[in-house]
Amino acid sequence: MRQLDIGRRAGSTRKARHTVVAVAHVPCIYHAVWNPHRFDAGAIAMDAWNSSANQGRDIIVIGASAGGSEAVTCLLQHLGPDLRAAIFVVCHLMPEASNHLVEVLNTAGPLMAKQPADNEEFDYGVVYVAPPDRHLLVKQDHVRITRGPRENRWRPAIDPLFRSAAVAYGTRAIGVVMSGMLDDGTAGLLAIKRCGGIAIVQDPEEAAFPDMPRSALANAKWTTVCRWRPWAP
Predict the structure, then answer these.
(1) Any idea which residues carry the catalytic annotation?
(2) What distance in Å separates the CA atoms of residue 111 and residue 80, rounded to the nearest whole number?
(3) Least buried of 35, 72, 117, 129, by fewest C-beta within 10 Å?
(4) Which of 155, 64, 50, 52 is nearest to 101 (CA)?
(5) Is 125 exposed, middle or buried (0-12, 13-18, 19+ CB in 10 A)?
(6) DSSP labels for 10-22?
(7) 123 torsion bin: left (phi>0), alpha (psi -120 to 50), beta (else)
(8) What pLDDT score does 193 carry?
(9) Strand partners, 173
């Protein structure tokens, strides 16, 4: 498998704030799941994803807004059915939105996508998508679907999902911020980092709307930047 710019540091040469990982075929999510101890070191061995599941993280929370559905779809295309993790996705949706996003994600790759019911237990290899006008929260072995107050002008919002994963799963959590406007996801990604989880951000240069990735990079120290697309510069 081809790798590009693996382990290159971005920013100041004296004190880098994040690691840039540009991956042509298999996204850095696999490395975070299977090899968390080597992940932040910058020596990324992308062929190591087939290690035993108990070595890694198994809760992946993804947040996206404008332009983010394409990025989520691209990422899911590269995740196989043997992924030993559950995936939870919040995309900013209007209250009257349909379940079109679930339909799109179901055709993206081998993983099944669905809108969960409140208190539903979750499984590995399934993508759980927040329904319109409801927050998606991760608890111990189940999800909550709530109609709490809007955050960052949105319901569903990214920060509640990320905070819930940080509290419930700590070091087992991987947070991913993708394309979007403003700064939803920044505070939640910082919570994941503070609880020992991994923070991943879509490269702002690749994102259709770079505000959310840039905000996360500016505030969550030692965040890893990933390019999902093989055609990205």
Answers:
(1) 65, 92, 184
(2) 7
(3) 117
(4) 64
(5) middle
(6) ES-SSS-SEEEEE
(7) beta
(8) 94
(9) 59
What confidence score (pLDDT) does residue 231 get?
40
Q: Tokens standing for 47?
A: 């062929």
Position 219: which residue type? N
User: What is the structure's pLDDT at 78?
Assistant: 80
Distances from the Cα of 65 to the Cα of 70, 100, 203, angstroms: 10, 15, 15
User: Right CATH number for 57-221 from 3.10.20.90, 3.40.50.280, 3.40.50.180, 3.40.50.2300?
Assistant: 3.40.50.180
Global pTM reads 0.79
Domain regions of the chain by residue span: 57-221
- What pLDDT, on a 0 to 100 scale, did the predictor assign at position 40? 30
Strands 18-23 and 3-10: antiparallel
> What averages of pLDDT result for each successive group of 10 residues across the chain (233 residues)?
28 41 44 44 29 61 94 86 92 85 92 97 96 96 96 95 97 93 96 93 91 92 70 41
